[in-house]
Amino acid sequence: MTNPFLSPSALPYQLPPFAEIRDEHFEEALEAGFAEQLEEVRAIVEDDAAPTFENTMEPLERSGQTLSRVAHVFFSMTSTDSTPFLEELEERFAPRFAAHEDAITLDPRLYARVAALHEAPDASWTDEQRYLVERRHTEMTVAGAGLDEAERARLMELNQQIATLTTRFDKHLQADTNDLAVVIDSEAELDGLSDGEIQAAAAAAAERGLDGKWLITLPLFSGHPWLASLTDRDVRRRVMEASLARGTRGNEHDNRETVIELTALRAERAALLGFATHAHAVTADETAGSPDNVMAMLTRLAKPAAANARAEAAALQAQIDAAGAGYQLAAWDWDYWTEKERTARFDIDTAALRPYFEAERVLRDGVFFAATQVYGITFEEREDLVGYHPDVRVFEVRNEDGSELGLYLLDLYTRDSKRGGAWMNSLIQQNELLGHPTVVMNNLNVPKPPAGTPTLLTFDETTTLFHEFGHALHGLFAHVTYPSLGGTNVFRDFVEFPSQVNEMWMLWPGIVEHYARHIETDEPLPADVIERLQASESFNQGHDTSEYLAAALLDQAWHARVAGDEVTDVAAFEQDALDRVGLLSETVPTRYSTGYFQHVFSGGYSAGYYSYIWSEVMDADTVEWFKQQPSIREAGQRFRERLLGVGGSKDPLEAFRDFRGRDADIAPLLARRGLDAAE
Ligand SMILES: [Zn+2]
User: What does pTM read for this prediction?
Assistant: First the structure.
C-alpha cells in the first residue's frame, strides 16, 4: 500500500484521506517532505541566473507540498486525537521542524536573493507579489538571515542566554507562586466560598501535608477568582498581597534581576538585527508596524479607562459606606463589592440558559444561518466524507450561486486525547498558484452527553462556536494567489479580528430568535435576558480595561529598552511607566506585574500583549458599521471581498481602510465597554 501523503488526495476538495492514513505513514512522509523541500530550496539558491520573482519567490511558494500535506494532518491529530505513538513522534520531530524552518529562513543565499528583489522591485509585479517579497524579507531579517558569520555567532549566543533566562523566569515564578499560596487555619475564614471550593482548598493543603488546614493557591494574574466571594477582608488582603509579591521578594526566586538581564539581552539582539528596540523588531512584523503606533493606541485608551475606573471606585466606596463597613476601598475589596452589584443588576442564571442552546440548532439555525444571511453561503453535510474520528463532521460549503467554496469540518466534543480550548486550523490552504481549494476545521471541547440525549451548550460555548466559526470563514473566503498569504496567515494582532466580529451574530435581532429556542417549549430566549446579557458587557470595564492596559504598557516599556541603557530599580521602572499614562493606581493594580508577567517574559508575547485590544478596536468599529448598514447581505459581501478574502495578501491596515473607508476608530470600543460616559 502506498503512502497517502506522498501524492495529492483524490477526494473532493483534496480532503486528506483519513480512512487510509496509518501510523507508519507519518514518519516516512515527514522525512520525504523535509528532504523534498530542502532539495527544492537548494535548486533555488544554486540557480546562477539573477534572482527574479519567477525563479525565487514562486518556486519557494510551490515548495514543500509533501511536508505541507503531512504536517497539517499530523498537527491536527496530535492536538485532537493523539496517541502515545503520535506523542512520541511529535516530541522527536519538534526539533526537526524547528531546524528545517531555520535551514530555509536563515539560508544566507536565499536571503541574498530575497533582499535583492526587495531592493529592486519589478514594476510588473502585482500588489500581492510586491507584498509577498516585503513580508518574506521582513521575516528573514527579523530572524537574523542578514547577519555575517560573526554576528550570527553572537545571535546564537544571545538566543541561548535568552532561552536560559526565560527558563529561569518560569522556574522562579513557579517556586514563588507555590511558596506564596495562602495557608488558612480555620474554615470560618473561608466564608463565602462554595463547598466545592472549600473542599478543593482542603485537598490542596492535604497535598502539602498540611492536614486540617486549607490552602489558597494563586493563579497567574494579579488577584484571585475567590476575591469576589471571600467575606473575610483580611484573607482577601493576604491573598492579594501574596499574588502581587511574586518574584520580587529578594529571595532566591526573585525575578527582578532576571527581567533586567533578559530585556537587556533582547535590546542587544534587536540592535544586532538592525532595530532600535526589541519592540521595534517585534512590531515590524505585525499590523501595528511600530511601537509608536502601539503606544498611541494604548495611550488614547488609557485616559477614559482610568477615568471610568475612578468612577467605579467611587461607586464601590459608596456601597461600602452604605453597608456601614467603615473602610477605604483597597485592591482586595474590588471584586467582592463588584460581585454584589453584578448579581443585583444582571442576575442571570447561566445554568437555566442551556436549554436554549441545543448544539445542533445553534450550529444549523444559528452559526450557519447567520453565515447564509450575511454571505449567502449554504451548508450541506457530507456523510460520505470522514474525518480522523467518528465525532468529526464534514460539511460542504457553497457560494450563493451554487459554486463550490470548500469544506468545513467540526469536531465539537472533548476527549482525553484532545488538548484543551477551542481553535480553528486549515487542512488545505486555498491558493491559485497550485489550484488548491479550502478545507478548514473547528475544534471545541464540549462534554459529550450520553447517547440519545441532546447536547446543550453553555452561553460561553455558544459564543466560542460563533468565534471559531469566524476564523473558519476567514479561511474559507481566502482568495489569494500565494499559499503563504492565504486565509488566517495574518499577523497576530489581526487574526482575532474576524473571529471577534463573527460573535456579533449570536445575539443579532432576527438571528437569535431563529436558533436560541427552548428545547422543550420552543420558546425564544426571553428579550429581557438578552438585554441583560448585552448590558453586562460594559459592566466593570473601567477596571478590566485599566488593568489590561497597564500590563500592555509595562510590556511595551520593558521592550522599549535600548542596548546599553541601565535599569536598576524594577519598582521605580514600573511606577514610572504607569504614571506616564495615568494608570498608576493602588486600587487597580496591573493585571500582571513584572515579577510574574509570564506572557511577555517567557510566553512568546513579548512586546505583543497589546494585540488583544488592537484586534478588538477593529472588531468594535466593524460591528458598529454593520449596525448602520441597510442590508447585512450587502454589507457582508463587502466585508468578505475587501477584508476576509484578502487574507494576508496585503497590508491589513490598507485592507481595513479599503473595507471601512477610513482607519479604525476607538470610539465604538469605548462605547461597547461603557468607557465613553465619564469625563
Ligand atoms: Zn480566536
Answer: 0.92
Query: How many whole angstroms from 560 Cα to the centroid of ligand 1?
Result: 28
Q: What are phi and psi of 160, to 5 degrees?
A: -70, -45
Determine contact, residues 394/407, Cβ cutoff 8 Å: yes
Task: State how far the Cα of 58 lies from the Cα of 597, in Å rounded to an integer.
Answer: 41
Residue 278 carries which side chain, given as an amino acid letter?
H
**One-character DSSP codes across 117-174:** HHHS--TT--HHHHHHHHHHHHHHHHHTTT--HHHHHHHHHHHHHHHHHHHHHHHHHH
Task: Tell me how far the alpha carbon of residue 498 lies from the centroid of ligand 1, in angstroms.
Answer: 9
pLDDT 10s digits, 630-670: 999 999 999 999 999 998 999 999 999 999 999 999 999 99
Q: How many residues does the chain have?
A: 679
Q: What is the pLDDT of residues 443-465, one digit of tens each?
A: 999 999 999 999 999 999 999 99
CA of 347 to the centre of ligand 1 (A): 28
Under 8 Å between Cβ of 337 and 329: yes
DSSP state of 339: H
pLDDT band at 677 (very low <50, low <70, confident <90, very high): low
Q: How far apart are CA 627 and CA 403, in angstroms?
A: 29
C-alpha closest to that of 411 among 432, 425, 397, 399:
425
C-alpha cell belonging to residue 562? 535600548
Reading the block at residue 538, the C-alpha cell is 460594559
Buried b (16+ CB within 10 A) or exposed e, 627-644: eeeeebeebbeebbebbb
Angle, helix 570-580 to helix 256-272, in steps of 10 degrees:
70
The single-letter code of the amino acid at 391 is D
Strand partners, 215: 183
CA of 302 to the centre of ligand 1 (A): 24
**What CA–CA distances, in Å, run from 66 to 8, 120, 659?**
8, 32, 36
DSSP at 247? T
Say if residue 147 is exposed, middle or buried (CB neighbours under 10 Å; 0-12, 13-18, 19+). buried
- Residue 468 appears among annotated catalytic residues: yes
Longest Cα–Cα distance in the chain:
84
Distance from residue 500's CA to the centre of ligand 1 (Å): 7
Q: How many CA atoms lie within 13 A of 620 on its CB side?
A: 17
pLDDT at 678 over 60: no
Annotated catalytic residue, options 61, 128, 468, 496? 468
Rounded to 10 degrees, the C-alpha dihedral 301/303/305/311 comes to -160
The per-residue pLDDT of the chain, averaged, comes to 95
Residue 459 has which C-alpha cell?
452561553
Cα dihedral 508, 513, 514, 519 in deg (nearest 10): 130
Tell me the per-residue pLDDT of 67-88, one tens digit each, with 9 for 90 and over: 999 999 999 999 999 999 999 9
Please tell me the distance from the alpha carbon of residue 181 to that of residue 150, in angstroms, as a whole number.
47
3-state secondary structure 663-677: CCCCHHHHHHCCCCC
CA distances from 391 to 16, 202, 469 (A): 16, 38, 17
Question: Rounded to an integer, what distance in angstroms lies between the CA atom of residue 476 and that of residue 410?
Answer: 14
Instruction: Summarize the confidence of residues 549-571 as an average pLDDT.
Output: 97
Strand residue runs (E) in 399-522: 404-413, 423-428, 439-446
**Joined grid coordinates for residue 26:** 507519518
- In this structure, the strands spanning 439-446 and 423-428 are antiparallel
Is-contact 366 358, C-beta < 8 A?
no
Contacts of 578 (CB under 8 A, 6+ apart): 550, 553, 554, 584, 585, 590
CA 28, CA 89: separation in Å to the nearest integer?
11
